[in-house]
Amino acid sequence: MDRILEDVVEVRSHLGPDDERTLADDVLDGLTRPLKELPPKHFYDARGSELFDAICELPEYYQTRTERSILEAHADDIVARTGAVELVELGSGSATKTRVLLDAMQEAGTLARYVPVDVSASTVHAVAELLADEYAGLSVYGLVADFERHLEYLPEDVGPRLMAFLGGTIGNFPPGSRRRFLRSLGKRLGADGYLLLGTDLVKEPRVIEAAYNDSAGVTAQFNLNVLHVLNRELEADFDVEAFEHVAFFDREREWIEMRLRAREPQHVRVEALDLEVDFASREELRTEISAKFTRERLRGDLAAAGLELVELFTDPDELFALSLARPA
Ligand code: SAH
Ligand code: AVI
User: Fold this and answer.
1) What is the pLDDT of residue 167?
2) Residue 202 three-state SS
3) Residues of the chain with pLDDT under 50
4) CB neighbourhood size of 80 (10 A)
5) Predicted pLDDT at 8
6) Nearest to 39, CA basis, from 240, 230, 296
7) Ligand 2 atom 6: the closest Cα is on which residue?
8) Which ligand 2 atom is at minimum distance from the Cα of 211?
């Protein structure tokens, strides 16, 4: 990093020993239940983040390119309506679509600060340096943090704030905590801030299922990667090859479930927790839900979180939606 970059880039990490505890608690909790389950945030070590980026390029994974096209069509309008001078992005990952918003803010002459927030330290560091380098005068304040637990560490706003939560990641929350989480975001928008929320929409199940069962098997690797994380971080001895990727659309709940299914009975030891776990043949471990939305569900969730839907942008095929909302 050169002198100039040192002045405008700051990255703070709020992940520490407590977070190893979170993984340990999640594993202890999730693997000892009758229906085994792990929260999806543990997918995203450096390898998991790379695999997610590869998913975004897959022909079957329509979400990323569709959300980008919506951003391209409406970023100028979003920036004009919000007057945003700073962009806070939750679960920013490698922030590829973010540039569309930053370009529009730069064009409008308002761009002052970008605040990426992600549990994946490698992506926050890489993005912070890259974007500060690409956008002259941009101040970047990166947070390596868990957005469910560390929103209090967001810096004070420096003017109208746009908080973006893109990619459909809100769909990875179970319904109850989804609304609670949205409410907590509302409290961090500042006096004249807006939330820009990306959500995947309900559609033909076969299109959704194809997006999570890609023919190149990248999503399967992404799913299985969580077992590598447990092996490394908690000295577990999962035989990763003994599990297979499963993803299906639950038509009643209107969400995708990703699971890992034991091909045959498995006995696993998690050394760091002194825990023994048994899987019966074909027993499944749920690793992710990915909820799909209707306009009604979106409006209901936002209203229950004290947010008012200002505008809903979508693509011509209504595959994906971007909602602009503000405190009601
Ligand atoms: N916004 C990007 C990336 C989406 S992938 C896009 O639209 O393509 C989901 C991102 O959220 C990953 O980068 C992951 O590391 C991050 N993430 C998941 N759970 C998180 C949590 N609890 N706190 C912070 N970041 C989280
Ligand atoms: C990050 N999140 C919105 C993705 C999704 O589609 O739910 C994660 C993912 N899982 C499998 N493929 C992509």
Assistant:
1) 98
2) coil
3) 1-6
4) 12
5) 84
6) 230
7) 290
8) 12
